[in-house]
Amino acid sequence: MRDAIDVEFDLHGLAGIAVRDGSSADVAAVRQQLGPIERPLGRPADIVLRFVDHLPSAGPLRLLGDGEFGHDDRSFFVLRGRRKARVRVQLPLERIGETPLEIRAERGATGIPLLIPILNLTALVNHALPLHGAAFRFAGQGVLVTGWSKGGKSEALLTFVERGAEYVADEWVYLPGDGQMVGIPEPVRVWDWHLRELPSYEHRLTTGERYRLRTLAAGAAVVGAAAPIAPVGSRRLRQLGSFLETQRHVDLPPARLFDQPVGAMHAPFDRLVFVVSHTRPETTRAEIDPMEVADRMTASLRYERQPLWRAYQHFLFCFPGARNSFLETVSQREHAALRRAFAGKPSRVVCHPYPVGMTDLYDAIAAP
Amino acid sequence: MTTLPSPLTIDHVSDLLRIRLIDPPPQLELAVERTLGSRAESSAPGRAADLTLRFVTGLGDEPLELIGRDDAAWSKDAFYLLADGRPVAEIPFDLLAAGCEIQLDRKAQRVPLLVELLTVAALSRELAVIAGTGADVGATRWLIGGPSPAAPAVALELGARARRVRNGWLLLRGGVHTTEGLRQPLRLAGSRTSWLRHRSVVPGGAPMIVARRVAERFAASRGATGRRPVAPLVDRLRPTAARFGTLTVPLDRLPADPARGTPDRTALFVLVASEAPKPFVRRLSPAAAASRLAAWHATLRGELGARYAEFRFAFPARHNELLSSLGERERQLLARQLTGPVLYLVEHPQEIPTRDLVALLSGLVAR
Question: Does B150 or B15 have the greater pLDDT score?
Answer without folding.
Answer: B150
